[in-house]
Amino acid sequence: MSRNAELARLIRDRAGDEPPEYGLILGSGLGHLAAAVEGVAIPYSDLPGFPHAGVSGHVPQLVVGRLDGRRVAVLGGRAHYYESGRADVMRLPLEVLKALGCDRLILTNAAGSLRADMPPGSLMLLSDHIAFAGTNPLIGEASEARFVPMTDAHDPAIRAGLKAAAKAEGIALPEGVYCWFSGPSFETPAEIRAARVLGADAVGMSTVPEVILARFLGLRCAAVSVITNMGAGLSDESISHEHTKAMAPLGAAKLERILRRFLGQGA
């Protein structure tokens, strides 16, 4: 039995056999969303091979259960490229979601804004992304499946459902392009200017590798950024990880409302 199948069996033994309709990956400062799920929490340490999220603000556990009537599997923390130098560090958790029968994925992250109309505390729905970090999680994959088309990588139908949920909640959810920097250092003002020239609307250190892996695995996906700061050089605020964690709850409360409306409306 493959490692993916063994882990899926372990999870089913604890959380039941019903396949999750959606997987969710929670970003920095957003882990509390998992607490709203009525189900079973499994620490990553109980799942051999799962990354032990090494960034404060992440909760390294898988929660499987129901949220507003829908079966979900929530990854309360993610590992990042900058922690190990491995862009494919989230491959196993996504493969396990697939093995559980999940075919749709929603990712969240904390991001820096490049737009004056998206200040800290606002949200951005990703319409596309730029892999500025210069690597790819499929490097080393031997099969021909590595040549993944990325047009509409951010699924139009899921995005439409999230926008409808946001509208119903009276919450602004502008779309924009997310630019992935490797981290862990924050971007320089010159890099922020370069990202704007390239067409980016927000910057961050995650999500893009997972979207590439999700498409490789056949998962439909969408992603939402919680804006925690303006990009370097665009304001007088001091950018730090502590600042990110402090600001994330401002947008996270709105994001939770959107996600619960989205799931509750049977999207």
Automatic annotation (TrEMBL):
A matching Pfam family: PNP_UDP_1
Protein name: Purine nucleoside phosphorylase
Annotated positions binding phosphate: 28, 58, 78-80, 110, 206
Leading EC class: transferase
Nucleoside phosphorylase domain residues: 22-263
SUPFAM superfamilies found in the cross-reference section: Purine and uridine phosphorylases
GO process annotations (BP): nucleoside metabolic process
Gene Ontology, cellular component aspect: cytoplasm
Family that this chain belongs to: Belongs to the PNP/MTAP phosphorylase family.
CDD domains: PNP-EcPNPII_like
Subunit details: Homotrimer.
Gene3D superfamilies: Nucleoside phosphorylase domain
Protein's job: The purine nucleoside phosphorylases catalyze the phosphorolytic breakdown of the N-glycosidic bond in the beta-(deoxy)ribonucleoside molecules, with the formation of the corresponding free purine bases and pentose-1-phosphate.
Pathway: Purine metabolism; purine nucleoside salvage
E.C. numbers: 2.4.2.1
Keyword entries, A-Z: Glycosyltransferase, Transferase
InterPro entries: Nucleoside_phosphorylase_d, Nucleoside_phosphorylase_sf, PUNP, Purine_phosphorylase
Positions that bind a purine D-ribonucleoside: 187, 229
